[in-house]
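quick q for whoever's on today - can somebody do inverse folding on this one?? i tried earlier but teh output was garbage lol. tokens:
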């Protein structure tokens, strides 16, 4: 017999694990072991019931990721996705470098290691005290920056002035934690509605985050010209960037030599702190059953496609074919077609929370027949029937 509506809703909120072959896109960077992949549960897309198999981690999240050089002469973006080391929480991050790729290459693994250490291998995440977690992530970011600054002194005769932004996501136990410096951004699709979860750290604009950055820079002795710190850089929080941290006085002297300002001008400058900092903003977001997917990307995407259009694009892609990796690649291509001149890095975390009533009618019918089958033929026969109807 058919289940009543409340029973149906409860049933559909239950996860079913089916064995499947996991396929990995060439540019997807999920560094789990083969053994972990083999036993990871396959989970349907949050949007499409008949989603093909995508790279799925131990938490059941289906990942897509892509990095595209675009029109830039150098590739200074990178990304990482890890599902080990944090006691069931997944780690994902996008890095957007500038002034070269040295800082990005250093941070890609080093920041993850610092986060694992500071979070005590995930123990603090399980504890759930947000202030403790926030302090640990701040410590991880600042320690990584100190190590990077020391390392930059050892290469290219200490003349490497590269830097990098970083936006980190930690996902587990129906919770999303974000630790963020720079101008990459995170958007959450919740029941089809968009929630933008980060503010860019840029020293221009009239929003609260920008005004705070402008105030901090000026109090540290810096100045802003055309939205750029000292007329130079348009991002106010980043790793590296020695000229705005450990070599501020050298930066002033170099500016005189290049006739960007005068000796008289620099005689009035008194620095009281770093102009660019690596202290992150950290947020905690409850996910729940209405959270569909999370989209993290560098500004090579967001400067050309706004969050509403980007999330709508991904939703439509997942409704069409359910493949997270294909959706990721298609979104990067859409940004290029919109005229993006920057490197583009994108991570999509599909959380597998299916709102069955938002599915196309044909897929709703499959779900409804699936529920009826449970009550009539039992779970063994059900598995045979369901796999004949639904392709993962």
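ok took a stab at it. sequence:
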């Amino acid at each position: 017999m058919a289940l009543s509506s409340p029973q149906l809703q409860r049933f559909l909120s239950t996860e079913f694990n089916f064995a499947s072959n996991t396929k990995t896109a060439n540019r997807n960077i999920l560094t789990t072991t083969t053994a972990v992949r083999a036993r990871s549960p396959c989970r349907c897309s949050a949007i499409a019931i008949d989603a093909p198999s995508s790279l799925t981690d131990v938490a059941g999240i289906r990942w897509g990721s892509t990095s595209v050089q675009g029109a830039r002469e150098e590739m200074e973006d990178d990304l990482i996705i890890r599902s080990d080391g944090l006691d069931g929480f997944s780690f994902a991050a996008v890095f957007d470098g500038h002034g070269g790729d040295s800082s990005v290459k250093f941070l890609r693994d080093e920041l993850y290691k610092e986060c694992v250490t500071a979070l005590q291998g995930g123990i603090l995440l399980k504890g759930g005290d947000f202030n403790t977690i926030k302090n640990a992530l701040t410590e991880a970011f600042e320690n990584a920056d100190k190590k990077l600054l020391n390392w930059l002194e050892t290469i290219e005769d200490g003349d490497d002035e590269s830097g990098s932004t970083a936006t980190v996501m930690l996902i587990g136990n129906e919770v999303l934690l974000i630790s963020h410096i720079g101008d990459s951004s995170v958007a959450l699709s919740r029941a089809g509605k968009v929630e933008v979860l980060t503010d860019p750290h840029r020293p221009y604009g009239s929003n609260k985050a920008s005004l705070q950055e402008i105030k901090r820079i000026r109090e540290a002795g810096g100045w802003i010209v055309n939205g750029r710190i000292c007329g130079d850089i348009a991002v106010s929080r980043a790793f590296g960037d020695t000229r705005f941290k450990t070599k501020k006085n050298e930066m002033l002297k170099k500016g005189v030599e290049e006739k960007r300002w005068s000796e008289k001008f620099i005689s009035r400058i008194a620095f009281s702190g770093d102009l660019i900092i690596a202290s992150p903003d950290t947020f905690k977001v409850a996910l729940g059953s209405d959270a569909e997917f999370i989209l993290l990307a560098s500004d090579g995407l967001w400067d050309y496609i706004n969050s509403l259009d980007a999330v709508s694009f991904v939703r439509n892609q997942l409704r069409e074919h359910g493949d997270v990796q294909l959706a990721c690649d298609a979104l990067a291509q859409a940004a290029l077609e919109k005229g993006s001149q920057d490197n583009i890095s994108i991570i999509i975390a599909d959380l597998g929370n299916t709102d069955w009533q938002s599915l196309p009618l044909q897929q709703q019918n499959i779900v409804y027949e699936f529920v009826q089958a449970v009550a009539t033929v039992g779970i063994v026969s059900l598995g045979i029937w369901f796999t004949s109807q639904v392709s993962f």
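fwiw Residues 1-43 have pLDDT under 50 and may be disordered. also The domain at 5-199+279-389 is CATH 3.60.40.10 (Phosphatase 2c; domain 1). so keep that in mind when u check it
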